[in-house]
Hints:
CATH topology of the largest domain: Outer membrane lipoprotein wza fold like
Distance between the termini: 73 Å
Oligomer: single chain
Number of strands: 17
Order of helices and strands: EEEEEEHEEEHEEHHEEEHEEHEHHH
Number of domains: 3
Largest sheet: 5 strands, mixed
Strand content: 25-35%
Radius of gyration: 35 Å
Strand order of the largest sheet: 9-8-12-10-11
CATH class of the largest domain: Alpha Beta
Amino acid sequence: MTENHTFVIQDGVPRYKIGPGDVLEILLKRGVTEEKHTAxxxxxxxxxxxxxxxxxxxxxxxxxxxxxxxxxAPFYRQIAVEVLVREYNSKKVTVLxxxxxxxxxxxxxxxxxxxxxxxxxxxxxxxxxADLERVRVIRPDGPPVTVNLFRLLxxxxxxxxxxxxxxxxxxxxxxxxxxxxxxVLGEVRSPGAFSLLPNMRLSQALALAGGTTDVAVLESAxxxxxxxxxxxxxxxxxxxVLEHAxxxxxxxxxxxxxxVLPRSAIGNWNAYLAKIRPTMEFLTAPLQAFTQGLLLxxxxxxx
Length: 303
């Protein structure tokens, strides 16, 4: 890119384009005499120097100096003009999202040609949880663009993606994967939710729950699998698992398995599941309701 609203390349060098709100330092030289003026560029792009007006909007400092010289020349002999930008106020980019600085959002001035990677470095870099593959650049005069920053690490691409004034760069946060859980409820010593470990088996979950109580009816214990919509009752010989360490009955658990150990025999599991369905809906709510045993233990005692 050789030009946008912020810069233009002249003689191989990117030059900043002056805009409304910028503060210019203008040096007028007449022989050994020098006059320094500070002037803000007005909303109409005009700057006032020595009571005369000259266009500055969209010009580089060299072009602005030439324009001011053209305006002043009829009134001043042998005058030389130099222009510097003292304050960069007209070109800005907003950076939002997962920033390493923790600021959440920054508005940064543009002082010339700036790549997306340079902008993010100036903003403090991305946060550790930033999703660098889906950075969004919202442009005022074009459709939004999704950028994979890892691809920008290649030198040609990194130099090619240049930001411009008015753009909004949004760095999304990567959503952490939901922790997988299993639930052990009923006649165990510490009912609740437990993290599902790789290749976790039934015996491990029961151990995490502190083991069964003396009144647990192991013959009626079951694993409820598949959630509310497609509940499946999985049978296992809990007694052989606990008393004989039978590997054929020590089943590998799946996410959200609900291990139920009732106090009395359950003859119809479909009817039982319909009865406890309101409680099971809390599986997606805070897990404290389960760990405190607010509802399900009582239902288990009622069959």
